[in-house]
Amino acid sequence: MFKPSNAVLLNFDVERLTVPSGKSKAEYSVPNVKGLKVVVSHASKTYMFRGVFDGKKISTTLGKYPEMTLMSAIQVTDEYQHLLAKGINPVDQKNKVESIPTLSSYFHDTYLPFAKINKKSWKDDLSRFKNHIESAIGHLQLNKITAAPLNDLMLQIKGDNRSNATVNRSRALLSSIFNQAFEREVIDSSPMSRVKKLNEQNHIERYLSDDELCRLMHVLGNHKVYQIDNEIIVGIIEMLLLTGARKGEVLNLKWSDLDEVNHLWKLEENKSGKPRVIQLNTEAQLVIRKMSRKYPYVFANPTTSLPYNDIRKTFQKILEAAEIENFRIHDLRHNFASMAVNNGCDIYVVQHLLGHASPTTTQRYAHLRQDTLRNASEMLSDRIKSARPSI
Questions:
Q1: What does the entry give for GO biological process (predicted)?
Q2: How far apart, in Å, do the first and last CA atoms of the chain sit?
Q3: Cα Rg for the chain, rounded, in angstroms?
Q4: Which pTM was predicted?
Q5: C-beta separation of 250 from 236 below 8 A
Q6: Are 307 and 297 in contact (CB under 8 A)?
C-alpha cells in the first residue's frame, strides 16, 4: 500500500487552496498521489478520485474537507488504484457498497415480507425487532455491522433483566436476517458467527401434583363461588388441561374445525406447519358443548366475536383460588404430557398427542414422577429376585 511521505502532507495544505479570481471553482491534483484531486469552490472543498477503467474515464466523490482528512483521502485513493490493477471498477464497487441497505430497511422491506409468508411467528419477529434491536443498530448498513456492536447489543438486552432465552431469541432473529442477506448476496458474510449463544436455564419442570389437580378442578367446577364469572375462559383452561393443545390453538378453534360425529379436531396448521388431528376425549367434548354457537370461534369473546387476546388475568385468579404457585399457562401442556407418560402412554403416542415432529421435543415435556420411577425399579427388582435360586 502506498505510504505518502511527510513532505507530501506538509507541502500540500488543503486549507490554503483557493478559487482563482473570476472562476467559480478550481481543481488541484495532490502531488505524487495518482488519481486524487481536490475540487475547491467558494462554498466547499471536495476530494475526488479520477481514473480510467476499460478505456473510459471514471470519477467519484470521496468526501469533503475537513470531515475527511487528506490522509484518509490518500488511503481510499490507494485502495481504488489497487482495485483498478485487479481489473475491478472502484466506482462500481463503491456504488454497490453504498447501496447496501440499513438493517431497518432490509428488515422491513425484504425480511419481514418473506417472514409473513413463511413464518407463523412473524409477529414475534416484528415485536422483537422493534423492542430490542431497531433503536440500537437499525440505522447501520448491513455491511457495517460487525460482531462487536452485536455482542454489545446482546449485553444490553440481557442488562434489562431479561432471561438468556430472550437474548437468544433476538440473536436467532438477527442470524436469520443476516443469513438471508448473505444468501441474497447483499453482504459477503454474516457477523453472527462470532456472537455466542447464551446458556439457557430451562424453566423448572412444573406439573400438577395430585392435590393441586384436585384443587384446580374444584375451582374450575365451582368458579362462580370464587367470583370467577367468565365461563368461556374457564372452558379454555379446561380445554388446555384436557387436550394438551397450545394456547393459540385453543383460542383460535372454530366450529368448522370440528368433526363432532367422530369427535375430532382438525388442525390445518400448527407450530410445526403440518396439519394434525386431535382426538377429543369425553370431557373435552362436554366443554365444547357448553359454548355458544353464535360465533365462528368456539371460545369467542362475546364482546368482539373474536378470540380472546389475553386470558392471563383470569388464569391467575383461578390459580390463586386453587392455591397453586409458579405455574404458567403453557405448563398445562407440560402437565398433559407428564400425566400421559406417568399413566403408561408410550412416548411415541404422547408425541402424536402433542403434535410434535420429533420425540426428542416430547421428552422435554414428559416428566416421570418419582413414584413412577420407583415402581418401575421395584418391578425390575422383583423380576431379578424371582430369578435368584433359592437356598
A1: DNA integration; DNA recombination
A2: 92
A3: 33
A4: 0.52
A5: yes
A6: yes
DSSP state, 30? P
Cell of 123: 409477529
Q: How would DSSP label each residue in 231-275? A: HHHHHHHHHHHHH---HHHHHT-BGGGEETTTTEEEES--TTS--
Mean pLDDT per 10-residue run, the chain (391 residues)?
A: 52 90 94 94 96 94 94 94 94 86 96 92 93 95 94 91 89 96 93 90 72 94 94 95 89 94 82 73 93 96 94 95 93 83 71 68 57 64 66 56
Burial class for 112, CB neighbours closer than 10 Å (0-12, 13-18, 19+): middle
C-alpha 30/C-alpha 13 separation (Å) is 10
Between CA 279 and CA 260 the distance in angstroms is 11
- How far CA 49 is from CA of 59, 65, 89, 248, 337, in Å, comes to 5, 14, 12, 59, 68
Give residue 334's identity as a one-letter amino acid code: H
Burial of 376 (0-12, 13-18, 19+ CB in 10 A): exposed
Domains identified in the chain and CATH numbers: 6-98 (3.30.160.390), 103-194 (1.10.150.130), 210-374 (1.10.443.10)
